[in-house]
Here is the input.
Amino acid sequence: MALALDELLTQSAALHKHLCPRQVLGVRMGLQGGALLGLSVPQSAKRLLTIVETDGCFADGVSAATNCWVGRRTLRVEDLGKVAATFVDTQTGRALRVWPRHAVRERAQAYAPEADNRWQGQLLGYQRMPVEALLTWCEVRLRADVALIVSRPGLRAACDHCGEEILNGREIRRDDQVLCGTCADRGYYELCYSASSLTSVRSHDPSTVKAPRSSIQR
Here is the structure.
């Protein structure tokens, strides 16, 4: 059942114990994404897939409006550092990207003349602006098939190199081997100890391996 803007903002604010302008943008973009695709939001099923281009308060606003969450496998984060989102109808494959109009921060002030400062002007103005003045959008084509992005829950495989389990069809097959993304050089970290220290990958005792202080390359 569709919820009013105020109700959705309350839900988003509850996640942070406050309401900020980016949450308002996220909620309004989520509502617009659903409207453009002709889908009712917040959704009760999992037809709508949302790809947000930054994390933080904005992403939670989008989730409150759409009911797309990482835990429901209906939200993806492609961190490009942009307040933008692409909304995908997984049944039709249609995808629409939505983002704020240029100079929207300045324009918001005109819709909140009582605001004490720019931040409050954005907070109130984003709620009041007509959607055409606040947001812009266009149809896009995903570079990967939506079925590959969503994948299939319940699938399991084991990496032939490290032995770790791989879920949801995310394994990579190379030269008759099944590899996880990390062992196929697509991971986000590097081990701080040599793989040769794991004399028996599938049966080694983790307590015998010195834990790395940090495995993320910064």
Summary: The CA atoms of residues 29 and 45 lie 19 Å apart.
